[in-house]
């Protein structure tokens, strides 16, 4: 019980520090002394030290010997490669931030753009489409809004979106026994409309990135079409190019 209590205190201290880093301190700024921080947060210095160490380990804080502890200039920026096919929760967690999912919903797709999506997935008319939407958050802040489109039948098996738990790659492997091997991705700058603004908690007209992605099985069968909307101040992509 004592160990659990200590963990709770450290986690609470970490959450308070993250809030202060995001709303009080600027990137590159030096934090106050441990004594001053502990007094401001109303915690012991031992608890503070443990919380600070977790933030240093995750890259949010940087220790400079003889100078102090500084806020990483890239704090909050989640970087990933378009060359790798990874679930968004794994990408967020790898940045040292807590990943959560919000606003999950699903429906049969019958709206504008359905014909174009069917063409991308090479679907015959009788097969229905599922549309799944959700927002992923990093440390409580919305990072990316996703819309996935996939057939209601895969290899003769009915797809049940109600069983979706974490990410699409895991869902397809666990529920449909299908593994996606590669994608073709298109990236374009767009302005947030009312729907996107509400999902990402940003103003209408804010410049964002839209990724349109078609995912394929090892046999080259297109199985998943995804639209991802992300704010460029929270999620950054890089591409490795070779000769």
Total domains: 2
Could you say which overall geometry the principal axes of the C-alpha atoms support? elongated
Indicate the percent of residues in helices.
25-40%
Strand content: 25-35%
Integer average pLDDT:
87
Kindly report the spatial arrangement of strands forming the biggest sheet: 4-5-6-11-10-9
> What is the assigned CATH homologous superfamily of the largest domain?
Chorismate lyase-like
Number of helices: 7
Features:
6-stranded antiparallel beta sheet; alpha+beta; 30% helix; Arc Repressor Mutant, subunit A; Chorismate lyase
Can you tell me about this structure?
- With 243 residues, the chain is of the alpha+beta class.
- It has two domains: 6-71, Winged helix-like DNA-binding domain superfamily/Winged helix DNA-binding domain (Arc Repressor Mutant, subunit A, Orthogonal Bundle), CATH 1.10.10; 79-238, 3-Layer(aba) Sandwich (Chorismate lyase), CATH 3.40.1410.10.
- It is built from seven helices and twelve strands.
- Helix 1 crosses helix 3 (45-57).
- The longest helix is centred in the first third of the chain and has 22 residues, at 2-23.
- The mean pLDDT is 87.
